[in-house]
Amino acid sequence: MTGSPAPGAPRDPVFRFRPVAEADAVAIAGWRYPPPYDLYDLDPDDWHTLLDPAAGFVVADLLPAPTAPVAAPGGAAPGVGAGPVGFAVFGAEARVPGAERAGLYDPADRALDIGLGLRPDLTGRGLGPRYVGAVLAAGADRHDPPSFRLAVARSNGRAIRAYQRVGFVPGPTFASPVRGVAVEVEFLLMTRPRTLCTTAAVSPSGEHLRADPDPNGRPGPDGSDRQEDERAP
Asked: What are the start and end residues of every segment in region (Disordered) (predicted)?
């Protein structure tokens, strides 16, 4: 038997990725996560980086599903409010300094590095794995990689489980400095082949696609449809 999404979570989320506007960047730089996820907080001045075209950040809006009767103001899905629900970045900007130092980014490996974040007030509502699936589909559409790679703090077990639900496999661990943290943080590098790519996302051209962690809509490895959430990249 499968479970139900968290209260208030859209059952069929549809994500649209678009370039970052200045208002988006300022808002995201002000997102604050509760401990122990506060290591993902950005500095308020980081909004300039989010706007840098060379960095390649995009933001995601959560649109109402085709079956939703009423959209929220601004066209957002009911219950999520206005403004971006997350952000993503692909390539070199998504890499973590400690993994670079440890030589874990093999130049011959064509894996696409991804970084992502979900708005703090939307975590714990069943959007995590579906949002990750949407980010993967957007990355595949933009970059056509053979595989995907990401880094996650080892202490963030909830995010690790969410990534595993969409096919990521744990790899090597490494330590990396994190701004505002006195000691280096231990991270886990995870990879996933493109062949598992989901049917989820809205492409850069604006096409609306559904976000499923599994292309066949199967439940997670624990036998349920309960979803874990990532707090931040």
From this structure: 200-233
Rounded alpha-carbon distances, angstroms, from residue 78 to 117, 121, 168:
20, 14, 30
Q: Are strands 58-63 and 112-118 parallel, antiparallel or unpaired?
A: unpaired
Helix axes 128-143, 157-165, angle to 10 degrees: 60
CATH of the domain at 93: 3.40.630.30
For the segment 25-84, what is each residue's pLDDT rounded down to a tens digit?
999 999 999 988 899 999 998 999 999 999 999 999 998 766 544 444 444 444 566 789
pTM for this structure? 0.77
Q: Give the residue from 168, 170, 190, 176 showing the smallest Cα distance to 99.
A: 176
pLDDT at 202: 42
Number of domain units in the chain: 1
Percentage above 70 pLDDT, the chain: 72
* CB-neighbour burial class of residue 27 (10 A; exposed 0-12, middle 13-18, buried 19+): middle
Alpha-carbon span 185 to 175, nearest angstrom: 5
